[in-house]
From TrEMBL:
CDD domains associated with the record: 45_DOPA_Dioxygenase
Requisite cofactors: Zn(2+)
Domain annotation Extradiol ring-cleavage dioxygenase class III enzyme subunit B: ranges: 56-266
One Pfam short name: LigB
GO molecular function, one term: dioxygenase activity
The protein's name: Class III extradiol ring-cleavage dioxygenase
Alphabetized PANTHER family for the sequence: 4,5-DOPA DIOXYGENASE EXTRADIOL-LIKE PROTEIN
Enzyme class of the recorded protein, top EC level: oxidoreductase
UniProt keyword annotations, A-Z: Dioxygenase, Metal-binding, Oxidoreductase, Zinc
Family recorded in the similarity comment: Belongs to the DODA-type extradiol aromatic ring-opening dioxygenase family.
EC number(s) per entry: 1.13.-.-
């Protein structure tokens, strides 16, 4: 069974989108009296998200519970670049189709968002002196536009992507801390990764949803317990966690979590899991922090 082969690729999204757009139009815009928006960590999925009705519903309901942000700043596992760099802030920023083996339809999807120049200027102003944010013409990669197309289907919120300049947890926590003040201005800060991402170790049965690897459950349980305790010291040692190195043969899908935690009012404070469960044997645990 080819897990990429569906009779009508994206049919679940076609069924989901009309109602999602109606609900999005009824959301309340963020106001200063609402207080800071939470910071999110989203297990983002790839084009298969558009074939997963239950997952899309849960992402959409998550966004429904939040005021509509004034802007979104997202750090994705799929843009590792130092020094820290910002995507194009122009309206209608093009998408990056950084995936392979999927139906042609997913390479024709669009997600045109408003101008994000004001957000780019604010992000640059939060950074330490001597560490400027570099700018680029880069568009939004699938770690950004795939989940946002589900959560904010109207495409009416300015979106800016920031590169992942390091895999060092302390440096990423510090970057998140710099972004913390933006939450009080109606900016939704998102770290986009995947709670487990051992793609090289998935079997055909796992891809077909018939089996879940032990390393996914081991790592997911370890991470959930450490997050519940606010145990940053343990999370720093993720390379030694149960289920490793299979859960994360490379670190880029886990470490955006540290940007999210750094942007929290208290990085060791309460964490709310909003989505759990698995997809293709991978943990899609997603969460928010206040």
């Amino acid at each position: 069974m080819d897990p990429f082969a569906t009779a009508h690729p994206g049919a679940a999204f076609d069924a989901y989108e009309p109602g999602a757009r109606e609900r999005a139009a009824l959301r309340t815009p963020w106001r200063p009296e609402d207080g800071p928006l939470p910071a999110l960590y989203v297990s983002h999925g790839a084009p298969p998200l558009f074939d997963d009705a239950e997952w899309m519903t849960r992402l959409g309901e998550w966004a429904d519970r939040l005021p509509t942000p004034k802007a979104i700043l997202i750090v994705s596992a799929h843009w590792e670049s130092a020094p820290l760099t910002l995507s194009s802030a122009e309206a209608g920023t093009p998408l990056v189709y950084d995936f392979g083996g999927f139906a042609e339809r997913f390479y024709r999807m669009t997600y045109a968002t408003p101008d994000a120049t004001a957000l780019a200027e604010r992000v640059a102003a939060t950074l330490p002196d001597g560490q400027p944010a570099h700018t680029s013409r880069r568009g939004l990669d699938h770690g950004a536009w795939v989940p946002l197309k589900v959560m904010y289907p109207l495409g009416d919120v300015p979106v800016l992507q920031m590169s992942l300049p390091t895999e060092d947890p302390d440096r990423l926590l510090a970057i998140g801390a710099r972004l913390r003040e933006l939450r009080s201005e109606g900016v939704l800060v998102i770290g986009s990764g995947f709670m487990t991402h051992g793609l090289p170790f998935l079997t055909r049965e796992m891809l077909a949803g018939q089996d879940t690897p032990g390393w996914t459950g081991d790592f997911d349980t370890w991470a959930a317990e450490a997050l519940d305790r606010g145990d940053l010291e343990t999370l720093h040692r993720f390379r030694d966690a149960p289920g490793m190195p299979y859960a994360h043969p490379t670190a880029e899908h886990f470490v955006p979590l540290f940007v999210t935690l750094g942007a929290a009012t208290d990085p060791e404070g309460p964490v709310t899991t909003t989505i759990d469960g698995n997809m293709w044997g991978l943990s899609r645990r997603s969460l928010q922090v206040a």
